[in-house]
Design a protein that fits this description.
The protein has no helices and six strands. It is mainly beta. The chain has a domain at 3-47. Strand 3 and strand 4 form a beta hairpin. The radius of gyration is 25 Å and the shape is elongated. The chain binds zinc ion (ZN). The site of zinc ion (ZN) has 8 residues, from loops.
């Protein structure tokens, strides 16, 4: 499985083409961050999405909600007056 490369890899460096800020237009380039591009002028941020099909945000592993025994909310009252 080979992805379409959008980066040009030279040794350990990844050389990529600069992108213009869609808001500021030509002349303003987006700063290249680890996982995103950002514009220093207007604050525009564009996340690098290798897989456009999936959203960038990945759901964290959610732990199953365990009812706390220390705080019984629905406990049948045995005491009856
Ligand atoms: Zn901008």
């Amino acid at each position: 499985m080979k992805k379409r490369e959008i980066f040009k890899v030279e040794g350990d460096k990844i050389v990529r083409l600069r992108r213009n800020c869609p808001k500021c237009g030509d002349g303003v380039f987006l700063a290249d961050h680890k996982d995103r591009l950002s514009c220093g002028a207007c604050g525009y941020t564009e996340f690098k999405s290798k897989k456009p099909e999936k959203p960038v945000e990945q759901p964290k592993e959610e732990q199953p909600v365990v009812s706390e025994s220390s705080t019984p909310s629905e406990k049948p009252k045995e005491e009856k007056k």
